[in-house]
Amino acid sequence: MVKITNDFILNADISTVLDRLRIVLTNGKLKDIQDKSTDIVVSCPFHSGGQEEHGSCFIRKKDGVFHCFGCDMKGSFLKFVAGCFDSSLEYAKDWLLKTFGGEIVSSAVAMDEPIQIGKRTQKKQFLDPKILENYQSWCPYLAKRKLSREICELFKVKYDPKYRQIIFPAYDINGRLVMMTKRSIDTKTFYLDKDVEKPVYCLDYVMKNNFKTAVITEGPFDCLTGWEYGYPTVATFGKISDYQIEQLNKSCIRVLYAMFDNDEAGRRFTETLKRKLTKRIIIVETKFPDGKKDINDLTKPEFDKIIQEARNS
């Protein structure tokens, strides 16, 4: 483990971090990585535009301290990672902690909403939005799922060509980036960060615009389809948590159209809302046409008809 600041020890070794960096970097840096006995020699990210062919930068394995013998740049491993991203120390710290996890070693550190986990107290982490710049802004698969470039840009949907995954940035009710949900376009598998409380997807945008009426569904594709069709829509990423209920209860929403998947699980989710949400929020149940599983299966006229019928019932 490497101490990246006075307060945090990184739960990964230097070699593991460098391997991951080489995968995620899109600026051509770290082309040369050579594992020596006590050091790792890499191409320096600070001179020659980070594009030198043969490494002149030495990183000590035991603590990550680096020294480039080409430009004489030296410093902590955190500084090195920031140089790889052409970004700030704070951004590098956020990326390291989000990607590999870390342990607080100083009880004096200021913490935002401390969470007790066994005998450790862990700081709730927020991601630097600049991390989204490492990914593409569009891929044809999104169009196949009925999503326009405009909606994807509005909600900052990205694509990771390395792993062929759609990335849905998820923000808390205050607009802070807390996780990046990933969905494989090959296996249709969703990847959620198990160490982060799931926010309500797109609730931050609903709050920002003070929408009083919204649709609620399960997944991000269905959620963004709702926005395509002109309706403020939020999503739970599957099963509804008590934390998400709390966020909805704090929101500006007063009427919520339940449009979960057209199956038994979806019906249970609607019952959960009716049982746990504050009485100030009116839950309107909806009914899908036969053969339609979710919002993404619907055409806009079908979607409009479901809302109208629910409104009139």
Question: Can you tell me about this structure?
Answer:
This protein has 313 residues and is α+β, with helices and mostly antiparallel strands. It has helices at 14-24, 77-85, 89-100, 140-144, 149-154, 203-208, 220-228, 242-250, 264-276, 300-312; strands at 2-3, 8-10, 33-35, 39-42, 57-60, 66-68, 74-75, 102-104, 115-117, 120-122, 158-160, 165-171, 177-184, 190-191, 213-217, 233-235, 255-258, 282-285. The chain has 2 domains: 2-122, DNA Primase, Chain A (Alpha-Beta Complex), CATH 3.90.580; 135-312, Dna Topoisomerase Vi A Subunit, Chain: A, domain 2, CATH 3.40.1360.10. Helices cover 30% and strands 21% of the residues. The protein has a 5-stranded antiparallel sheet with strand order 3-4-5-6-7, with helices on one face. A hairpin with a 4-residue loop joins strand 11 and strand 12 (165-171). The protein is elongated, with a radius of gyration of 23 Å. Mean pLDDT is 86; it is low at 104-123.
